[in-house]
Amino acid sequence: MVRKTFLLTLLCLAVLLFTVWCSDDGDNPCGSRECGEVDGANCGICAGSTEVCSAEGICLDVCADRECGETEGVYCGACSDATAVCTANGFCVGVCQDRECGLVGEVDCGRCTSPEACSLDGRCVQPGCPSDMVEMGQHGVCIDAFEYTIEQFAAFLNEHGDDCSAGYENESNADRCTSYNPEEIVFQDGIWQPSPGLVQYPLYSASWYGAVAACGWQGRRLCTQQEWQAACQGPDEWAYPYGPSYEVCACHIWDSTWPSTCSADWGGSIVPVGSAPQCEGGYAGLMDMIGNTGEWHADCLVDNPWVGTRTCEKHVSQVKDQTCTSRTSGRADSSGGGFRCCLDQE
Q: Is 111's pLDDT higher than 60?
């Protein structure tokens, strides 16, 4: 009985020693590694074509969260959509989106059928604009040839009414179509009318709300800053509508030397629209993009909840050496200005 117990004990010790020897990493350097090399021993290679061996010897699929592109020397595939590109993060993103035509990088988003032309924002548009507007090349936008006149704004107020708050009812003074105490337009004998002698002068006291409403009344919209600047600079992106260099008497900008150096008729701060024939551009027929009166843009910089209104952009007027990029901003309700409207070509 003692001998049998002794033999069993020796057998157990032998099994234990064998187990320790088999699990000794000194003799099995790969251990739990799936791949790579360690201490000169080859622990295997990864089977997947998009797998790489990590420093810990684990096979990792580097394309698992990618749709396309290349990472760590591994090609993860191409985008199946011809109008998609692969981002740096490995996702296929369509670059055409709402575009009908034109190129985005090297991606062709389609062609227009003649006589339509492709606008810069990728719309197929019919050529031509209403007679009182100017076509902005490939922008697919028409812009008023002249600043909105006092006569036009009087007609708007008489038909539309003098409350311009539609869509902005929660903003202070949004009902005010003009800034405080306009001088160039008066309510007399039950109608709005231009002050004597100012029929064809540009409006200069419109509120931003009034400008938005007046353009909407015509089935148009207030131009964005980008559109306005593109129209002013023209296809050559000039600093001034008439060319690359400043010309003293080209546009109606206030200057004490006017009576002697420009025109005796330019004594006032504004003149009738189109009175400066050299102030044409950046597209043919587009007048007074610099000078005469500042013009509101559709863009508003910030909302001002503490005063209940917003601050919006407009082009600077009556500033010597002003360019097509000269801008300022003002309160939408009380900072007066002029404007012109834009229209998307169909």
A: yes
Closest by CA to 83, choosing from 111, 113, 112, 104, is 104
φ/ψ bin of 73: left (φ > 0), alpha (ψ from -120 to 50), beta (otherwise): left
What sign for the dihedral angle of Cα 206, 211, 217, 218?
positive
Percent of the chain clearing pLDDT 70 (strictly above): 84
> Quick check: is 51 in a domain?
no
- Can you tell me whether residue 184 is helix, strand or coil? coil
Query: What are the residues facing 194 on neighbouring strands?
Result: 185
Please list, in sequence order, all residues whose beta carbon lies within 8 angstroms of the beta carbon of residue 104, skipping any fewer than 6 positions away.
95, 96, 122
Same domain for 170 and 198: yes
> Which residues, 6+ apart, have CB-to-CB distance to 292 below 8 Å?
147, 202, 251, 252, 270, 271, 273, 276, 317, 338
- Pair 78, 219 in one domain: no
Which uninterrupted H or E stretch holds 160? helix 150-160
**Is omega for the bond preceding 115 within 30 degrees of 0, making it cis?**
yes
Q: Is residue 305 classed exposed, middle or buried when 0-12, 13-18 and 19+ CB atoms within 10 A define those classes? A: exposed
The count of C-alpha atoms lying within 13 angstroms of the C-alpha of 208, restricted to the half-sphere facing its C-beta, is: 28
- Nearest alpha-carbon partner for 212 in 222, 225, 226: 222
Would you say the pTM of this structure is higher than 0.85?
Answer: no
Map tokens 């709300």 to a residue: 209
pLDDT tens digits for range 4-19: 554 445 554 444 444 4
pLDDT at 20 over 90: no
Rounded Cα distance between 220 and 143, Å, is 9
The total number of structural domains that make up the chain: 2
Name the residue range of residue 80's domain: 67-127
> What does 30-58 look like in DSSP terms, one character per residue?
TTT--SSEETTEE-----STTEEE-TTS-
| Structural domain contains residue 18 | no
Q: Please choose, from the candidates 292, 126, 148, 158, the residue with its C-alpha nearest in 3D space to the C-alpha of residue 220.
A: 148
